[in-house]
Amino acid sequence: MEKNQKKFAEQIQPLRDEIDRIDSDILSLLARRQEQVKKVVALKKTCDVPVFHPAREEDLISRLRTRAEEKKLDPDVIEDLFRVILRHSRVNQASDMRGKGIRPNARVLVIGGAGQMGAMFAALFEKSGYQVRILTESDWENAPGLCADVDLVLVSVPIEKTGAVVEKISPHLPETALLADLTSVKKEPIAAMCRCHKGPVLGIHPLFGPTTTSLDKQIIVVTPGRDPAASHWLVEQLGLWGAVLVQSTPQEHDEIMEIVQALRHFATFCFGRFLYERRVQIQRTLEFSSPIYRLELGMVGRLFAQDAGLYAQIIFATKERRQLLKQFITSLNQHLDMLETNDTQAFIHHFHDIAQWFGPFSDQALRESTFLIERLIERF
């Protein structure tokens, strides 16, 4: 045994030394890659090109997967590795791009700039060379001076206050100023802005929270109000910061958000409330849980770790949203008969109909959720 251990120690060391040299070479190559990325950032700044180029990234991943297979490497592992590298590169690029302004020295007024989301955007504009002004609820007497010669007014206040704030600020705005809002509802705010302000109007909905550290691949929905050409510079600026921009009409936006936000958050709330009413032992269930249950419960817990008032605004924002949620509850009640009669065949029938309706997305969802589950297993 001792002889074998000595033989192993003698033979393993050169192999480990070679692995260490290869690891060092990988680090050197990553450093060289980073230097090239810096040159790309400088060129993008000069040409006002957005950070994220989805088509190029997906083409790159496809080529790398093919080359990995040729070299007898696991393409999934190689894809995971390079997606980490690419994200790190994008985040660094986005950070550098924050210093690039499409209209440097333009005057930006953020109403509600002391709030979390308003402060986040105020910081982004300031870092990009804009002259940023803040208007809070306590200093409305300064509104005329703050609005003088302003180029952009960004309204970042609770949904229910947006219309009143727009009406209050509009008399002080230059006609050339771009008026925009950050609310998660678009029809009513855009209608109010177009009614009260004669100049350009744009609706903006960031689909992320104020704790986001980078706009890399974060989705921002932009909805036109009036004079899209006059707001093009702002849309370009958002893209330059790394955001993925989705164009929509106010009507389409609100209809989709009824599902994406209101219904999803309300269904999560109902699930959490049911667990609470039954006084379920959360930690004990996790000891028995599959990764998918932990993932689902994690999303429930995430909701209740945040601001109740914010989610109340989102869920109860419009009568259309409240009507949709009532329809959701009615739909749930329709399944009572199936449970009362133990009708498994009815369940299977509905299951197949719904699966067919989901179509190819089911396979995509299976792949994506499997990826998330595997990452969760690695962590826990």
What is the first-to-last residue Cα distance? 37 Å
CATH architecture of the largest domain: 3-Layer(aba) Sandwich
Using the coordinates shown, work out and report the CATH topology of the largest domain: Rossmann fold
Helix content: 55-70%
Total domains, how many? 3
Structural class: alpha/beta
The succession of helices and strands, N to C, reads: HHHEHEHEHEHEEHEHHHHHHHH
Share of residues in strands: 5-15%
Q: What is the top-level CATH class of the largest domain?
A: Alpha Beta
What is the H level of CATH, i.e. the homologous superfamily of the largest domain?
Answer: NAD(P)-binding Rossmann-like Domain
Query: Which strand order do you get reading across the main beta sheet?
Result: 2-1-3-4-5-6-7
- Average of pLDDT: 90
- Which residue ranges are poorly predicted, with pLDDT under 50 across at least 5 consecutive positions? none
Count of individual beta strands: 7
Radius of gyration: 26 Å
Coarse morphology: globular
Characterize the main sheet: 7 strands, mixed
Number of helices: 16
